[in-house]
Write a structure and sequence with these properties.
Strand 5 and strand 6 form a beta hairpin. This protein has one domain: Nucleoside Triphosphate Pyrophosphohydrolase. Helix content is about 25%, strand content about 35%. It contains four helices and seven strands, in the order E-E-E-E-H-E-E-E-H-H-H. It is of the alpha+beta class. It is globular, with a radius of gyration of 13 Å.
């Protein structure tokens, strides 16, 4: 079975900003050292909701809720990635962890310019359309 992952677009409580993260240079990911929209690989037997929740907590230091799936693809690395939009539950203070060196809130209209071109290329069309819909 192919790997399963969940990408998560985290909207600020006012809906004006989204989170992006910068992978650590030491990461084995093709996105090492690059800004991207966070995603997390599912563990065996884990639901995608639990994957998003765990990923947001481990990578960003926040809890999330209001999960809505907007697309799914199999990326060039053979990983089936389901993309979700969610919001922070409570605190919006970001504390990068896991394989992130940094995390920050950016204006929604600027997300595609702020992330690395490779990260943008890996996004499915529906996610890009969603991100571009606020311009």
């Amino acid at each position: 079975m192919e790997k399963l992952a969940a990408g998560f677009i985290v909207l600020s409580q006012d809906g004006k900003r989204e989170v992006i993260g910068k992978k650590k240079e030491s990461s084995s990911s093709p996105l090492a050292g690059k800004w991207h929209i966070p995603a997390e690989t599912a563990e065996a037997g884990e639901s995608l909701w639990d994957t998003v929740r765990r990923g947001a907590e481990q990578e960003l230091g926040i809890w999330v809720n209001g999960l809505v799936e907007i697309d799914r693809i199999v990326n060039p690395y053979g990983v089936e990635v389901h993309w979700f939009v969610c919001g922070p539950f409570g605190n919006e203070k970001l504390t990068p962890g896991s394989d992130l060196a940094e995390a920050k809130w950016v204006e929604r209209k600027n997300v595609l310019e702020e992330i690395d071109p490779l990260a943008a290329e890996l996004l499915p069309e529906k996610v890009k359309q969603y991100l571009e819909s606020v311009r």
